[in-house]
Amino acid sequence: MGRRKKGRCVRNNKKTEDVEDVSLVTAPHSFVIHRGLSTEHVVELTKDFRRVMEPFTATDLKERKKNFLKDFVQVAGPLHVSHIVIFSCTERGMYLKFGRMPRGPTLSFKVNDFTLARDVISSMKKQMVFTEAFKHSPLVILNQFSGEGLQFKLMASMFQNMFPAINLATINLSNLRRCICLSYNKDDKTIDFRHYAIKVVPVGLTKSVKKLVQAKIPNLGKCKDFEDFVKKPAVSDSEAEDDPDHHVILPQKLSSRGCNEDSKSAIRLYEIGPRINMSLIKVEDGLLEGQVLFHEFIHKTDEEVAALEKARAKKRKAKALATQKQEENKKNKELKKEEHKNKSLEGMKRKKKESEILLQKYAKESEKVHESDEDDDAQYYEEEVGEKPDRDLFTKKPKRMKFSKDAKK
Fold first, then answer.
1. Boundaries of each Brix domain copy (predicted)?
2. Which of 246, 269, 311 lies closest to 178, judged by CA?
3. Can you give the pTM of this predicted structure?
């Protein structure tokens, strides 16, 4: 049977190599998980924060109680995951940790207050939620993070590096649909986290013209002519234009209607949640372990820090020795296993050879016994009868020769 030819669709649609874009591989990716007491609010807040971190996060990640931190660290490399966000809940309260994978540092915050995204949206008079905004990373805005101390530099670096960097020369402004605002309050040492959707609208247009620009169907029932609808005066003060400080000249054309290049437009923010108010408690140089670089409540002397560092070094040394010993034991076990395997194979070969020798020995002995039995029968016949037996009486019958089919032919 001949080889079947490929169809036209198969020939035209050749398989392409699945290679990710370099920008996607180098972009910061994150895991958002929760640990500890699994309450309904913690689970919902975790899902809302995953929504904030889109598109470079595992939105449908299903973590289990038996999953340890090392499980996420092991898969972080192949999946290009650079950060991990952990919500943990205890009897004392809720905590939020930001960690750089795989070797730290780690920032630990105490969540003082939070509001879920659904509650934030439902409280808004004008809601602004659209799926297109979550196809690109948000813009990060930091306020009052220029204080003295290592913790401010680490916080600013952590929050900025969790999202892709923006190149002002090549950025497409139509992709900036969201922004994250992090504001540090010096009075109570808390951080306010806000998540907004960005909307750009043209300036200098009446309400009726805006409806036409936005492709909305106007109500012309009270107008005698279309000119009356267009030239209708401005409405109440509540619907007047925004503050002039919020007006900008667009350097490029946007995908929104009426937002052309070099035109004046207004920037409006619509909060989409969640809201989080948190306080920095601790900074560690490792991933949830290591030397404590900053602590809000516990302050140690230089002698205590040196003693802790000495104990930590001793622990690391003991761990390294245990790991080395475990590797040596593993190698010795593999060698013993290989030796046992070789000995078993040699024993099997030797046993097989001995069994073959015994079979040959038994075959020879059986032939000798058979010949001696034939001699005894002939002698007994001669003694009893008085004459020698016929030649063919006690002789072994010759074996029949087997011929193949080709020989018979």
1. 28-289
2. 269
3. 0.69
